[in-house]
Amino acid sequence: MSAATLTTEIPTLCLDLATRARTASRGMAAVLRAAKDRWILASAKALESRASEILEANAKDVAAAPGYGLNTAAIDRLTLTSARIQQMAEGLRQVASLPDPVGEVREGSVRPNGLQVLKVGAPLGVVFFIYESRPNVTVDAAALCVKSGNAVILRGGKEAIHSNTAIHRILADEVATAGLPVDAVQLVPMTDREAVGHLLKLGHLIDLAIPRGGESLIRRVAREATMPVLKHFDGICHVYVDAAADLEMAERIVVNAKTQRPGVCNAAECLLVHEDVADRFLPQVGAALAAKRVEIRGCSRTRNLIPTTKSASEADYRTEFLDLILAVKVVPSLEAAIDHINTHGSKHTDAIVTASLSAAQRFTLTVDAAAVMVNASTRFNDGFELGLGAEIGISTDKFHARGPCGLRELTTYKWVVTGEGHIRG
Q1: Is 124 in a helix, a strand, or coil?
Q2: Which residue among 31, 323, 328, 367 sits deepest, i.e. has the most Cβ atoms within 10 Å of its Cβ?
C-alpha cells in the first residue's frame, strides 16, 4: 500500500473502528454479568492453552526491539514468558470474581413525596486505550473494559505489534461465543502514529482516552484529545525514611521499591532520609543498593556517607529514571521531606517508613499523591496488588478517578427516579 493510499484510508479505517465500537457499546450496556464473566474466564483458559502462539509472536517483537532503540527496562516490559502469561490469565480470573459495577446502586433515598431516587453505576461507553511496550496490558484493558460494560479500542505500540495481534486474536475468538457484541474488543490494525491522531478527533464516538506509556505520548494525547483523558505524566516516586524508622525494614523497602522492577511507574526514583538516622542508614542501604548495581546521585551529606555517590543536580530530583538510578537527599525533618515531595514529585506514589503513628498520619494527610504508603514499598500501587483484579492505568488527576483505575473507575453513574404518577406542582 502506497503512502498516499494509506494516508487516504487511515481516517476511514479509524472512523469505521470507532463507529463499530459505538454500536457495540450500546449492546454492552445491557450485557449481564454472567456473559461478561463467561468471556473473561474463557479468555483466561485460551491464553493458557494458546501460550505458544503468544510466545512465538513475542519473540519477533523482542528480536526487533533493539532496532527501535528500546533500553533494557523497556525490553523487559515487552518480554513475555510462560510465567507472565499465567499471571495474565490469573488477572483475568480475578476480574471475573469482582462485583459488576454496572447496575450497582451507589446511593438511594425516598423523597418526602414518595419518589425513589437511586444513583446507579453505568458504563462510560467507548474507551480508546493507547499503550506502549507492555503487551500484557492488552489483556488487562480488554477485561476491565468488558467487565465494566464498555467497548474498547486497543492501540499498542509498533514495538509490540506481533504480541498484541496474537493476544487480541485469542480474545476476539472468545467474544462471539460468549454472547458479547462482536466489536466489543477491537485492535487498531496499523502502527502508523497518524491513526492515533484521527481517533483522538472522534470525541462524538469515543467517551474516554487512556494513554499508558512515555510522557511524550501522554502529553500528545492530552493535547489532541476531543474527549476526556485519564492519565498520569510520570512517576517520580519517593521513599522517606523517618527518624523513627526501623532501619532494617527501611532497607528492604528501599531496595524493593527501586530494584524489583525499575522500569515501571511505581518504582522509587528518590530516597529521602531524616538527618537523625542518616549516619547509620545511608552506608547500610548504600551497600545493599550497590549489590543491585544501583547508581546513587546524592546531596553532599549522602556523598560523605556513601563514597561512590555521584553529585545530584536539581534536575535529578525531578527525574523519572526508569532505570537503576536513585536520587538521594538527607532532610532535617518530616516537614522538609513532605515539602520536597510536594515540590518535586508527580503526585503518583510516595512512601514513609516510620514507627511513629503521628508521623505516618501527618505524611498521609499532607503528601499530595494518588497513593501514599506507610511501611510498604511504592511497588504496591498497582491494581492487582490493591485487589482491583487488574488496572487500566494510574491517574494522578483529581477528578473522576485517582490512583490505580479498575472497574469502578471505568464507569459513571445515572440517576434512576421511580414514581407512581408523580407530577411536579
Answers
A1: coil
A2: 328
Separation CA 336–CA 317 (nearest Å): 14
Q: Which residues contact 223 (CB under 8 A, 6 or more apart)?
A: none
User: How many angstroms separate the CA atoms of 409 and 397, rounded?
Assistant: 12
- Higher-confidence residue: 284 or 393? 284
Question: Cα separation of 389 and 407, whole Å?
Answer: 9
Element holding 403 (H helix, E strand): strand 403-405
Q: Is the model's pTM score more than 0.70?
A: yes
Could you tell me the domains of the chain? 7-230+405-418 (3.40.605.10), 237-380 (3.40.309.10)
pLDDT digits (tens, 9 = 90+) for 181-210: 999 999 999 888 899 999 999 999 999 999
Helix intervals (H) in 225-274? 247-259
Q: Pick from 287, 272, 372, 252: which is nearest to 328 by CA?
A: 272
Give the distance, in angstroms, between the CA of residue 232 and the centroid of all CA atoms in the same chain.
9
- Which among 194, 346, 340, 374 has a CA at the least distance from the CA of 266? 346
Write the DSSP string, 300-337: HHHHHHSTTPEEPPTGGGG----SSEEEEEEESSHHHH
C-alpha gyration radius of the chain? 24
pLDDT in tens, 206-242: 999 999 887 888 899 999 999 999 988 889 999 999 9
Residue 367 cell numbers, joined: 503528601
Closest CA to 378 of 386, 366, 390, 388: 386
Asked if residue 60 has pLDDT above 50, the reply is yes
Helix axes 161-175, 51-64, angle to 10 degrees: 160
Q: How far apart are CA 306 and CA 182, in angstroms?
A: 59
Condensed to tens digits (0 to 9), the pLDDT of residues 2-16 reads 444 455 699 999 999
Q: What is the pLDDT of residue 7?
A: 54
